[in-house]
Structure formats: structure tokens, C-alpha cells
Amino acid sequence: LISVQTNDDNYDEGDTIVISGEISTIIGDTQVTLQLFKEGNMIEIAQIKVSQDGNYSYAIIAEGNLWKNQGEYTVKVTYGESNMAETIFSFTLKKADFKNFFKRVG
Known about the structure:
The chain is mainly β. It has one helix spanning 98-101, and strands at residues 5-6, 10-12, 16-22, 32-38, 41-48, 55-61, 71-79, 83-92.
């Protein structure tokens, strides 16, 4: 079996999202496959090594071209043939700083 969790339930643009979990039965050098989805669209994929004690972790910085939509994101992890787990977190875009857009040039 595989478990997955994030270090928080809510993230803002620019935050570091730490995804971690545990494998109950290690299968040789098999890696965890992580996929991150927003409304069915995959925005991140990674292969993660599992430590000897069965733990794994991966960090993602919530910024860039694929982080344009706020709302719920789904993390799916798979290990081996049929071990799968998922978790959900919320993401919020930073509000634009309009004061800087309208500064007068003196």
C-alpha cells in the first residue's frame, strides 16, 4: 500500500508544496510516480525514489506558466502495478499589486 499527503491544505502562489508518503512493502528499486492535476489536466509528473524505510517526498514550487488557475488540485501517486493514493489541496493566486502599475514617473 501507498499513502500520500501534503504539508498543508492551502497554498498561495510561490509557496513550496511538499508531497510525502510511505510505502508499506518496498518492491526492489521501483519508484513512486507522482502526477499533479488541475481539472483533469496534468501539470506536473515526477518519478520519486523511495528510501530504505519506505518513505518518499517531493517538493514543488507553486509558480510558473502551469499555475494560472486557482482552486483544487489533485495529487495522484502510484507504486507498482495497482498501488495508488491521492490527496487534494487548494491553490490561490496572489492579487496583483496595482499600486506598482500606476506609479507616476516623476
